Amino acid sequence: MVRTAIAPTGVEKTFHPDQIIVSKTDRQGRLTYVNDLFVEISGYPEAELIGKPHNVIRHPDMPRSVFGLLWDRIAAGQEIFAYVMNLSADGSHYWVLAHVTPTFDASGSIVGYHSNRRTADATALTAVTALYQRLVAEERRHPSARDAVEAGGRLLEQELAEAGLSYDEYVWSLNNGTDRAVAA
User: Fold this and answer.
1) 152 and 135 in contact (C-beta within 8 Å)?
2) What is the mean pLDDT of residues 20-32?
3) Percent of the chain scoring above 70 in pLDDT
4) Is 15 part of a structural domain of the chain?
5) How crowded is residue 152: how many other Cβ atoms within 10 Å of its Cβ?
6) 167: which residues sit within 8 A by CB, 6+ positions away?
7) What is the C-alpha separation between 48 and 71, in angstroms, rounded?
8) What distances in angstroms separate CA 111 from CA 1, 27, 68, 145, one per listed residue?
9) For 118-135, what is each residue's pLDDT tens digit?
10) For residue 142, what pLDDT is reported?
11) Nearest-CA neighbor of 20 among 36, 43, 33, 42?
12) Rounded to whole angstroms, how far apart are CA atoms 173 and 180?
């Protein structure tokens, strides 16, 4: 069984920039495929991952509102790039730049999702970490998960609007080193 309630240790893991973490899920977000790097970096045996929700690696300091945006996009048949902090089985964490896409069948219906994840740029993480901390702080002010996601989403939209950016533009401004950062 996959362990639950893993306490973050603050230790960060990294992997080589030429490596890619790959996973596939069904429409409900249950893992159907993980590559060897996913297994290695997550610290879970493959047998404990397949069939489990992808959020088994969700770090508690990752904003729910970012995952809300991600799920809204992919459920609508769109791709998304997002910075994500994941939690390994040993409590360490690792940052990725995730590219998540829907998988379609021959009739054009979504049958699952595919994610490729690369290492995240350290400079980008400075800005994204500050934003995500603000989002998490706002989300934690709300007792229900739904209210938390909505509140975090409103704050994210507000900060991006003030910077004149969409989330995609924000991600790529960080990735390309142009850092048109949202409010500090």
Assistant:
1) yes
2) 97
3) 93
4) no
5) 27
6) 69, 80, 82, 156, 160
7) 23
8) 26, 6, 19, 26
9) 999 889 999 999 999 999
10) 96
11) 36
12) 6
CA-closest candidate to residue 20, choices 120, 123, 93: 120
For residue 91 the two structure tokens come to 């409590």
Question: Which tokens belong to 97?
Answer: 């730049």
Domain match, 91 and 49 both: yes
Q: Does residue 55 contact residue 29 with C-beta atoms inside 8 Å?
A: yes
26 and 107 co-located in one domain: yes
CA separation for the pair 179, 170 (Å, rounded): 8
Q: How many domains does the chain have?
A: 2
For residue 176, is pLDDT > 70? no
- Is residue 86 a contact partner of residue 93, using CB atoms and an 8 Å limit? yes
Tell whether 30 is covered by a domain. Answer: yes
